[in-house]
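Morning run. Coffee first, then this:
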Amino acid sequence: MRLVVMIPAYNEEESIGDVIKGIILVRDKVLNALFENVSILVINDGSEDNSVRVAEEARADKIISHKRNEGLGPTFATAIEKALLMGADIIVNIDADGQFDSWDIPRLVKPIIDEEADMVTCTRFAEKTPDMPWLKKFGNRRFTNIVNQLAGGNFTDTQCGFRAYSREAALRLTLFGRYTYTQEVFLDLARKGMEIIEIPCKVKGEREGESRLIKNVFSYGFKALLIILRSYRDFQPLRFFGGFGLGMFIPGVVIALILAIRLLLFNRISPYMSLVYISLVLIIVGVLMLVLALVAEMYVRQRELQEEILYKLKKSEK
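And here it is:
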């Protein structure tokens, strides 16, 4: 069995060396007894500092570099693709900023080795909330609630990137987000019936220095919310478009009925003629949205067939 520990990195020269050395220590002490081969893969997302040189000096097994900074989503997708090509049976993703403890890697991979899960994710909030600004805590809770509703889960932390994936889960992943991937992975794998569990892990808390990803909390929240909404649109279009459709159609019909009753009782609609036009617009737009929901639901079937073909093609690659 082969393990690949992948580290997406962008301008992390101050911390990536220690992260790699920590993984090597855990590999020598514990992981080599669990796996035939353990490799450390660094995906350099167009760093402008000495991250690559530091990773080489720390003895990373393989380093892949983007020519320019493409974002966390594409970097994660590249890392998954390369790890699969390296023959990984289990893939662990850990951040390059040193917030997570490498000694938790054996705990992450154990449920997958025991065939109890397809993805195991670290939760920072199950036992003790780490030290971070209240706005980030609030955002984490709200996004976790949204993902739980869409994925039908009961998770406590859906934004943490410290995770382990089985080969099957990695092959099944189909992601499109450029800014981040954490929420989209939950929604994608949950929709495909993959077993996901959480385990509490140690964290340092707030990273030292400026976050490479969250430079503006509001911008990050908006972009992450867009990813969730797009995933909801793509995975459950009947509920997405149908909800909007019913939200317009029903009020339109109610207004029309009230106006019809008024016409029967008083033989006139005035002075509420404007409501006639509002009712017509709501009913027409509502019907169009409901039709769109049905059409979009048909395309979901096509997407599922295409993803199955993609899965088989990736599985056949050596």
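The radius of gyration is 24 Å. Good start to the day.
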